[in-house]
# Entry
Amino acid sequence: MLLIEHTPTGAWTVADLSGQPHQTRAWPDWTTDRLSLDTRESWLSAGRLTDEGRHRLLHPRVLLASLYHPEFFPLPRFPPAISDLARAARSILLGRVELMDMQLGVTLEDILERVATGDVDILGVSANFGQHDLMIRLLDEVTAMDRPPMLLAGGSLTVRNERLLLERYPHLVIGRSAGEPTIADILAHWHGDLDLEQVRGVGYVGAARGEGATLDRPQLPARLHPQVPGEDPRRPRLPRHPRPAQRAEEHRLPRLRRHDPRPGRHRPGHRGPPPAGRRVHRDRRDHDPRAARRARPDRHHRAGRAAHRPPRPAAPRVRPLDREPELAAHQRRRPLRHLKGNHAHAATPGPARPEPRCLRPRRGLLDPRRPRRQQRRADRLGRRRPRHAYTALVRAHELGITLFDTADVYGLGRSERLLGRLLRHVDRDGLVVSSKVGYFAGTGRHPYHPRQMSHQLATTLDNLGTDHLDVYFLHSTDFGEHDQYLTGVVDLLGEWRDQGLIRAVGMRAPHTFAEQWADHDEPESTETGRFLRLFHTVRPDVFTARYNLLSPLYSPDQTDIFAFARRHRVGVLIKQALGQGLLIGTHNARDPRRFSDTDHRRGDPRFAPDGLRRLADRLAPLRARYGTSTAALARVALRYALQHAPDSIVLVGFRDPEQIHTDVTCLGDPLTDDEIAQIRATLHPDTPEGDP
# Structure
C-alpha cells in the first residue's frame, strides 16, 4: 500500500506501507516527469509533484457501485468484485476511488444521492442477473442529470444485453471482460492518454463486436465474408488483427489446459493439485525423446501408455428409434422425404414389417383418454391466467364498467400492464383509472421516500401507458417512524396534482371506524385518532373502505365512515364486498385453498377450515332463502353494500370473463327493507333491536 500525503507546509510525503524501498516499486509511466522522490532507497521519502501530477493524482473521482437485491438474495456475495476493481484502479495512482456495495448495507438512494452531489467523474456500475430493475433505474436517473458522469457498466447482465443497453444509453461504455485492465485504461482515457478504441475489453456505440457487427450495421452472413485460400470454410473466422477493443484477456493471462480427471491423465503443467486418491504418471516425453517420436503426430500428446494404443473402432450409433423396435418399424414403413440439392424426392420404403402393436403413450403427455385440461402442468396454469384476465377486462368494458382500480404491488406490475393493454384499445377519456403506492420499497429506505414514490409513479404510468391517473391512493398508512415521510408525501402529491400527473388523492380507511371512538375512553381511540390526524393532513378526495355482509353495525348516534365521508364531501370506494369470495362459496372447508407464503390470507383464520365451517353455518339461512348459486349469493352481497351507501362505488375482483359477467348481471331488483332486516338479524344477532 502506498500513502501519498500533502503536508501543511506544502511538501508531499510518500510512504510505502509495506516497508519496501521506493526503487523496488513499478511506478506508473505518468509519474516519470511529474513525481520526483528525494530518497528512493527508503520506504519513506519527501516528494515533489507538478501541477499536472497533482491533478492526475486527485482526478478523476471514481465511484464504483455494485447493485444487489438483499431482499431477494439474503446471503452476501463474497468477495465483492468491485474491491478488485478498486485495487486495480488505485495501483496506477490515477484519481480517487470510492466503493458503494449494496450487499454491505448501501441502498440505491444512497448511490443516487452520492452521484447527485456532482463530484463524481466516472461511475462504474456492476450488475448481474436479478438486478435489471436497479440498473435501469440508476442509469435513467443518472443520464437525466444536468452533468452526468462518465458511465461504465460491467457484469454478466450488461454483457448479455450490450446491444439493448447501448441503444437506450448511447454514451454508456460496457465492460466485456475482466474489469482490472479495463478500469486502468478508462482512467488513462479520461486523462487523454488513450483513445476509447484503445481501451481493453469495452463495448460502445460504433465499437466492433464479433465479426465486425456494430450497432448501426447488421452482422453479415458467414457466406459473404471472403475466405482465405486454404482455409476451411466451415470453420468460423475470427478477425486476423483485432482492434484493441476486441481483445480478450489472453494477452494478459496464460492459456490453461483443460484438466483430465481420469487416472493417469493428469498433466504436470496443469495448475492445481491432481485428483485425490489417484496416481499421477509422469510424462515420459519429459525425459525420453523416443517416447515423443513414437507418439502419433496427429494426436495430442498424452502421458502414459494410452498415447500409443491403436484407436478403438467407433461404436455403432444408436438412434432414438432403435430403442423402440415397434415404433422404429412403424416409422420405417412411412416414406421419408430427402432433400438432395434443390430437388425433393420420396425415398424407397423398406421391406414390409409386422404390424406394430399399439404403444401406450406416456402418462400425462397427449393421452386422448384423459381430459386435455388435466394434462396441463401446474406451472402452465399461471400462464393462462393473464389471457383470461385480459378477456375479462374487455368483457367488463363491454358491460359498461368505467372505473378500473389496480396497484403497483398487484403482481409486481403485471396487473398494471394488463390494464394498460386494454387502455391502448379503448377511449381513455371515458374511463377512471386508479392505482396505489405505499407498500413496495424495493431497495429504497421506505415506500414513501420521495425518490421511491417518484419512481413508482413513473413505473405505474409507464405500465398503464397513460400520462395521468384519475386517483392515486396511499395504499398504506405507515409513513415511517414518527410519520417522518408524511409531510414530504403531501407536498409531492400536491406537485403532481399541479402538474396534471394525478387528478385526485385517495387514502384507505380503517376496517372499523366511528368518529366518536376518538374519545380517550374508547379502546379504539388510538387508531381512530391517528386516522383523523392523517385525514386532516392529507385531505384526500376518496376513501377506500371495506364493507360487506359481515361488517359490524353501528348505532344511530355513531358516525361511521360513510356518514363521515358525506359530511366532508369525500367519495368512497367499497372493497371486499364479496368478502374475497367467502360470501359466494368460493372457499370450501372440505377442500380449503392453499395460499402462498406472501399471501395475507395464509394466516387469516377466516380462510382456515374451522373458520370456513363457522361461516357456512352463519350463511346457511341466506342460502336456504336466496339459493346456493354464485349469482344469487353475489346479488345479495352486492345489493347489501350498494343500498347501505348508494352514493358509493363497489369494487369487485375477477379472474375470468364468467366472474365479471356474473357480478354485473346478477344485481336484479333491490333488496326490500324486510330482507335487509332479516339479513342483519341472521348475521348480527347480537345487535340491539332498533339499530340499523
Remarks:
- The chain is about 30% helix and 10% strand.
- The chain has a mean pLDDT of 72.
- The domain at 59-203 is CATH 3.40.50.280 (Rossmann fold).
